[in-house]
Give the backbone structure.
Amino acid sequence: MAQERAIITVVGKDTVGIIATVCTYLAENNINILDISQTIVQGYFNMMMIVDISAIQKAFGDIQNELTKLGEEKIGVQIKTQKEAIFDAMHRL
Amino acid sequence: MINLREVEETNAMIDKENLDVRTITMGLCLLDCIDSNVDKLCQNIHDKIYRCAKDLVKTGNEIAKDFGIPVVNKRISVTPISLVGASACKSSADFVKIAKTLDAVAKKVGVNFLGGYSALVSKGMTPADELLIRSIPEALTETDVLCSSVNLGSTKTGIDMDAVRLMGTIIKETAELSEKKGVLNGDSKLVVFCNAPDDNPFMAGAFHGVTEGDVVLNVGVSGPGVVKKALESVRGTDFETLSETIKKTAFKVTRVGQLVAKEASKRLGYPFGIVDLSLAPTPAIGDSVADILCEMGLEYAGAPGTTAALAMLNDQVKKGGLMASSYVGGLSGAFIPVSEDQGMIHAAEAGALTLEKLEAMTCVCSVGLDMIAIPGDTKDTTIAGIIADEMAIGMINQKTTACRLIPCPGKKVGDKVEFGGLLGFAPVMAVNPYSCEAFVNRGGRIPAPVHSFKN
């Protein structure tokens, strides 16, 4: 099946288990991680994941909402999920 | 693969610099709705708009969510109503009936504006054109989301001065009727053009030209805040660096517009028309074209150097944007509406920006004298004179120019007028007090200009 990519960004105060929590959710929802990069600047955690959402069962909009909620309620970080096309459009010819 | 820095850059533009897709505008041809019975015509118009546009708002919102970029407005433009109603409408009241139908169906599908209550009279008026124009004060004060435009001239045909003179009166009447009825000043939804484009997605001047297909999706991008931010990083550098920075930024902004346009076309099943490369400000802080001019080195918009700065900005936005989209159209340039731009409001309040300077600025950018509040006692002949000047600039320079002048009954120079929402507020600006009555009352038209001997 062809890949359908989305970008997940996680921004917030660094704490134990951010990646674990996000990855657990992704695994439960059949979302494959293709790439991860992260930095921590002055205690602030900044992560980006490129994921494949082609096998998700739920609607993409629900995944977005659930991830945002997970970030706010469980780990106190901001999680944003966007389709990759917007970044490709802007940064790739 | 996309890297973290690129993702951060895009999201900073959206979250901090007000990058958005300003509008997805669905252009709809209504010629197939024509009937000689006005009630049947209204029914046909309602049915077609509802059928084609019922999913427009929902789809726009879904695209916005998927990509994480706001799609601020979802709008509709239709075939100029003077053509659609020509066979059915025997009076201005008949045209008002169509206006109310358009307003009702626009609200039903949830769009925030519908444009096309228009007449194209660049060479002369048909009886239907004149009836429509005379119905504008009533139509705009009886409706909420309907926008009206009249094309009064073109480079190919010259300027219809009879229509210019009539519009002076209509603009004044619209303001007075709005005041009497206690509704939003209808002139904020009324614009007159020279060389009006057929595929403009921006209000109040959007209409669906007769050269267009049945249904088409046009997208207007924006992002003055993004350009301003990019220029902050090149303070004190030379014009080459400045140009390059604007170009690159415009490219990125337009690519997002192109993506959204293609996506909307795919999801709605209607062809993509054009991307309009305009820098469209809003009253929000940091979403101002005037602020870009200040960042370029001016104390206020309106200071000496403003026309040059704007000319360069406008040109670089086009150069950057043209490569980013397969079809560019509409107005494509920097907008300089006074009330919708915080920086322009500041400049006007400080006395740095006058009507005459704005007129000069319209020579080098889109579109024209836009959202300018003028004293309520301005004579209708004076309004016609200002319009004639602006039309002449468009005609001679082969560009689109426009006027959206808003006489404010009971207000004097310096008073503040609130229009609300995206329309913002504006200080009432001074108008040259000397008369042009004998000139605009001559009647007839100004001949088309020579297309050679350019100087």
In short: The mean pLDDT of chain B is 94.
